[in-house]
């Protein structure tokens, strides 16, 4: 009898497969409903008592976007239908029936959401997104070549057909932005982003703890990492996209397909204009550039006035120094993303971030005159490929930072930890102190599960991606107390020099600090030597599960923690910035804080989906650090500290240390 895991895997295989013959779904499904019917949710009628509400609003073979409210409502209705089933067998049966009726990406999204949230499916894991949707990661041309090869093949030939991708990715090096294509198109980064928006949906499900704040923090951290990567290849930091009435210099051509065969993602020419948006086919009201400008002004007004205004006209104060209720950054994040359920006033503050994605995704066909589908900015699994993603999110972050700079700098009491001295810090890799290395490596995935090839030969994707040699942090910490002391260790990394080769002030460097790890340790009285492996980082997951990993189950030696991850989390292989061939200097900033002040009272199961917690939180539990996310870099500097070095010189519990990261232009040696 098939295990729960294999039943789930079989549902997730071949999402694009067409219904065979007469599909006895029990659901009456008109083949092509008018838009007005779809918007009104008048289909499908439930012939056999199955209600999937507006789930069919998103047509099969088209793009599905979490940034569009009608698509989110479709996801909600499908999720609700799945959640109402009693037991795995009923879920799998319903899923098999609706799989051929609803949009493919919507189906996988909703089914994945249910796998994570249904209590009786806690032992089931999701396979890698790249194996479910190779077409969202690899250009159409390469997939078609494999298809032609499969058709040409002798049916008895079972040697794998290989599709190679990288290190050139979708572009040349003619345009400066292409120097970081390898990073933007990394399979793990895009997969993480899809999983993050699966874990933190806007508009449905039980709202996770500090959702708005984590929306701010996780995206800010991805920007910090992108800027470190840019500095590594000699590019300037990302410029925010805040003037929406001038041409956007960088175009983007993903070369991917939406539906595995022929429907292309929309493209954007260099120097395109953002346009007023009118597409009734998406069930959205028109959005003018003026609308998003007005929402921005209202958010900035709220930030500078210190409060938002709810639907009753009452003031909702914005402050991060609260001892109960939501922090200001959390309230602002929910209103800005926007999550209409959680926004204090969605009519007034709008839906700025989401609809920015939508307007950008439709620069090429904002009124549906050409019947073109959206660009990759519309889909959370492809958006990070496009350089404009970072420029848009830099704008979003800039508004959040405008708020953060209204907050009082941290006091010495907030920052210090009496009687604990962080004497020394450093890293060790391949027996070398303070010298880390990055380089190219190759990973293979199976592609045939996500493609509808009729081939007996396996089709594999061979992806070139950046990686690093593993390393350990070494800390020497003195506890001057007579009793053991529990502390939180916070490790950040930032480039030491700016693009002009100069050391940076606190404010110039502040948004480049990338969290590397955060963990709790108990210090015995006296000297302690703490060693932490890079593979245990609080931001990363173990690598993704392939279908094959899940079919065979955890390998001997796999720790419970490793087998416990749920897909969300920064990929381990991009934990480090690339550095340079000659060795680029970075600074490690390590701070120990009092666990008594940091800890969070947890109720419930904190062991589930507890990987990559700094970026992803813990499923159904509280975010496990009571400090504002990004502490101590989320606020401006206290006046006595003009640089990170001043922190380290004046606070015993902080240490700053230079390390180099060397990029090996050939393959990485670990
Ligand atoms: Cu993740 Cu804009 O929120 O892409």
Automatic annotation (TrEMBL):
* InterPro entries the record matches: Di-copper_centre_dom_sf, Hemocyanin/hexamerin, Hemocyanin/hexamerin_mid_dom, Hemocyanin_C, Hemocyanin_C_sf, Hemocyanin_N, Hemocyanin_N_sf, Ig_E-set
Is Zinc one of the keywords?
no
Domain of life of the organism encoding this protein: Eukaryota
Task: Please tell me one Gene Ontology term that the record gives under cellular component.
Answer: extracellular region
Intracellular or extracellular location(s) = Secreted
Q: Does the keyword Disulfide bond apply?
A: yes
The GO terms describing molecular function are: metal ion binding; oxidoreductase activity
Q: Name one Pfam family in it.
A: Hemocyanin_N
The UniProt entry lists the main location of this chain as: secreted
- Annotated PROSITE patterns: HEMOCYANIN_2, TYROSINASE_2
**Which UniProt keywords are listed?**
Copper, Disulfide bond, Metal-binding, Secreted
Q: Locate the Tyrosinase copper-binding domain: which residues? A: 386-397
Q: What is this protein called?
A: Prophenoloxidase
